[in-house]
Amino acid sequence: MSVAGFAGDTVERMSYLGLGVSMLAVAPEFLMPFAGFLAHQGNLHLLGVIIAGSLGGTLGSTILYLIARRVGEQRVRRFFQRRGRFLLLRESDLDVVLGVFERHGEWLVLVGRFVPTVRSLVSLPAGLLPMPFPRFLLFTLAGTTLWCAALSVGGYLLGVQWRVLEKWLGFYGTTAVSLVVLAVAGFTLYRLKEFVYEQR
């Protein structure tokens, strides 16, 4: 059984608690449409689904934020200075990321909740800055709630046809992850070219 399938069974057995806990490890694109369908069937209440999913997703993002905050910018900076070259990273790369986050962090945290993979990554620089926790929590909860509401309402309205969403969300998720992978690959090739040029 897949992780998503196990999580779906957990939601059916444990109701709102199962949904909230599952959101710590499973993407909302897999869970929330199904939970919306369960609300359509009368097994759960739609508002309860949105609240449970939003709280679970927010908690997962907050854990990553707190880990990054605990590690701290200075430790990460020392790592970049000592070991960054083995990962083709420079301390200036960290400065760029933190600089962008310092200027646009709230919107990146908010919009990032709608994008697979990105939703987890944005919590890390937010914790390293660190972005003030109340502000991080507010924008994380807002973005997570909006996305969970959209997905669960979609499942609720489609009813027994809720799986129609799986095709489109699967395409959306694959596209988003592919773009992230391409961006990483492009950066890696660019940095390799730089390092080779510097060795001449």
List keywords for this structure.
200 residues, 9 helices
Which helices and strands, and how do they pair?
Elements: H1 3-22, H2 28-40, H3 46-71, H4 73-83, H5 91-112, H6 118-121, H7 123-128, H8 133-158, H9 164-199
Helix pairs in contact: 1-2, 1-3, 2-3, 2-8, 3-8, 5-8
Written as H for each helix and E for each strand, in order along the chain, the element string is HHHHHHHHH
Question: What fraction of residues sit in β-strands?
Answer: under 5%
Report the major sheet: none
Low-confidence stretches: none
Tell me the total number of β-strands: 0
Q: Helicity level, as a percent range?
A: over 70%
Cα-atom Rg, whole angstroms? 19 Å
Number of helices: 9
Question: Between the first and last Cα atoms, what is the distance in angstroms?
Answer: 53 Å
Mean pLDDT equals: 89
* Outline type: elongated
The class by helix and strand makeup works out as: mainly alpha
Notes on the structure:
The protein is 82% helix and 0% strand. It is an all-alpha fold. The chain has helices spanning 3-22, 28-40, 46-71, 73-83, 91-112, 118-121, 123-128, 133-158, 164-199. The protein is elongated, with a radius of gyration of 19 Å.
Summarize the structure.
The protein is built from nine helices and no strands.
